[in-house]
User: Which sequence fits this backbone?
């Protein structure tokens, strides 16, 4: 999604001089096209994420729309209080762009895993949070949010080629994207792992099963009414997220089920413990925490055939 | 203006029975010089092309509220909402109040935001200036030094920091908490232009704030101040970071200041 992000940002910047890009010295082989095209609106703030968000706050107050780019943990967590006291408190159009949610930087080690960003960001009611499911959806999402006055946290995946089949790059604000309707179990995912979930769904459908499938991109403000409608159609909903089990999508759905008085049963899939023992690549880590396609497929079959 | 600022600081702190008095008195002359002599006569807090003022040491907001009152940016009725309910006049400032460009109170964040404003002015080819009032304790924060590097790298010669160098912080003297030896040299080594002046001399403060670099350096005005300036029993006393005044202490303070 990173290259798509940059391609879209170049289009936005071409049409509107307010868009500027800041990076915390990351984005090799990704950001160069923007840097070359708009050198006066590209700022490498160095390895100093707190200052970068502070600078973005000042730029936004002065009329710019700054996009602040780094890896999830350095974009969202290191400067969190600057995000809170800056764009959030002042309601300025700063876009915090965190790349590589979940285990996408698996081999880089635990400092580079992005497992709590959505939870942290979501607690702030005045910070809009989006986790697009694939590159095509990132492109349409960016068109929707480009000039929104509110501050934004955008969680981007690394994989350019993964596609959520049936989504066709659709982004509709204030609603989950309901890809496969069914009266059976609903599988609901957030962010990049939706591509793997989509493959599991396709395989199940090819085998004659009829799972419901939806992705949620617009995490905050949560589309509560639309989610209530969706969840009410199913007896069981299974959430899948590359995130700690608490604070993200599964927590959001649990809140909605409880507060709306729904009888839908919820099964949450996420990372249930800190990855502080043997590490590895993304696929290894997904399987270690039960989020790989084989595990998801086995869980789905059990539920669908129950 | 600074005598009037001090009077408002004492009156409002007494009325609401709150502390941070020493920190406010420490910058009364800095604020007076800035609002009386440096900000233009037509300074309009609603204009997008106004100079920006960032009170990075947010706990001294009452000194700024006083200046805003004296420049007639806020009314007496608004000022009297200080620490009231349904009020934007908290201990630390809120940006919704006219004349407050940024909410502050978390130390070490103001310089980064100000650097963003200064960079924006450069990008927009405006000659507006950005003034930051910072405490010496904020030099403990790593983000201050991130911003110091950024401002020098981007040649933000429209950025002026006035450092309230009163040598004190909440729990002790800076020399005991985090010693700031060779302060001028530290900033010069970060490629800033440094002026070190008497922080209670309006003319010198104003001249320093207006003496900008001709070779692209941001300006650091080290204002050598006395914490609690003007009230004998508060001067250089740690307890007056937090303590409110008793009735007797208030009477003595106003009497010493000749109100």
Assistant:
């Amino acid at each position: 999604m990173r290259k798509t992000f940059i391609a879209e940002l170049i289009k936005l910047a071409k049409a509107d001089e307010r868009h500027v890009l800041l990076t915390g010295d990351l984005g090799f082989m990704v950001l160069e096209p923007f840097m070359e095209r708009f050198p006066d609106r590209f700022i490498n703030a160095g390895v100093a994420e707190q200052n970068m968000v502070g600078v973005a706050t000042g730029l936004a107050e002065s009329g710019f729309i700054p996009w602040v780019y780094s890896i999830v943990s350095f974009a969202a967590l290191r400067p969190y209080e600057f995000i809170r006291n800056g764009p959030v408190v002042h309601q300025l159009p700063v876009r915090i762009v965190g790349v590589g949610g979940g285990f996408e930087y698996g081999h880089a080690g635990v400092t580079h895993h992005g497992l709590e960003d959505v939870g942290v960001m979501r607690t702030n009611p005045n910070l809009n949070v989006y986790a697009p499911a694939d590159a095509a959806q990132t492109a349409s999402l960016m068109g929707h949010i480009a000039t929104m006055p509110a501050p934004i946290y955008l969680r981007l995946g690394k994989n350019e080629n993964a596609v959520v089949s049936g989504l066709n790059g659709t982004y509709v604000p204030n609603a989950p994207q309901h890809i496969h309707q069914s009266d059976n179990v609903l599988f609901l995912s957030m962010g990049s792992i939706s591509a793997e979930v989509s493959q599991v769904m396709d395989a199940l459908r090819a085998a004659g099963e009829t799972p419901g499938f939806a992705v949620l991109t617009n995490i905050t403000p949560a589309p509560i009414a639309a989610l209530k409608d969706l969840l009410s159609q199913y007896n069981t909903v299974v959430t899948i997220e590359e995130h700690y089990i608490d604070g993200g999508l599964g927590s959001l759905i649990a809140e909605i089920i409880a507060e709306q008085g729904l009888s839908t049963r919820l099964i949450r899939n996420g990372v249930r413990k800190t990855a502080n023992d043997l590490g590895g690549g993304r696929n290894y880590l997904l399987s270690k925490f039960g989020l790989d396609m084989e595990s998801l497929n086995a869980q789905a079959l059990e539920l669908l055939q129950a | 203006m600074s005598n009037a600022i001090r009077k408002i600081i004492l009156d409002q702190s007494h009325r609401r029975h709150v502390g941070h008095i020493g920190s406010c008195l420490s910058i009364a002359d800095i604020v007076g010089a800035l609002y009386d002599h440096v900000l233009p006569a037509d300074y309009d807090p609603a204009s997008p092309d106004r100079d920006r003022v960032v009170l990075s040491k947010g706990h001294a907001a009452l000194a700024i509220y006083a200046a805003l009152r004296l420049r007639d940016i806020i009314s007496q009725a608004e000022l009297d909402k200080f620490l009231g309910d349904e009020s934007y006049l908290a201990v630390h400032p809120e940006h919704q109040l006219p004349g407050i460009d940024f909410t502050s109170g978390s130390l070490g964040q103001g310089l980064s935001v100000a650097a963003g404003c200064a960079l924006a002015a450069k990008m927009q080819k405006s000659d507006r200036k950005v003034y930051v009032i910072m405490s010496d304790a904020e030099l403990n924060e790593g983000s201050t030094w991130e911003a110091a590097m950024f401002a020098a790298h981007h040649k933000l010669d429209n950025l002026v920091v006035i450092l309230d160098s009163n040598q004190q912080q909440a729990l002790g003297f800076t020399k005991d908490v985090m010693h700031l030896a060779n302060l001028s040299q530290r900033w010069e080594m970060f490629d800033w232009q440094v002026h070190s002046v008497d922080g209670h001399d309006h003319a010198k403060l104003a001249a320093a704030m207006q003496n900008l670099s001709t070779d692209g350096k941001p300006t650091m005005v080290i204002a050598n101040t006395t914490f609690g300036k003007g009230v004998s029993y508060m001067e250089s006393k740690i307890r007056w970071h937090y303590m409110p005044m008793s009735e007797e202490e208030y009477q003595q303070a106003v009497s010493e200041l000749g109100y």
Notes: The longest strand of chain A covers residues 236-244.
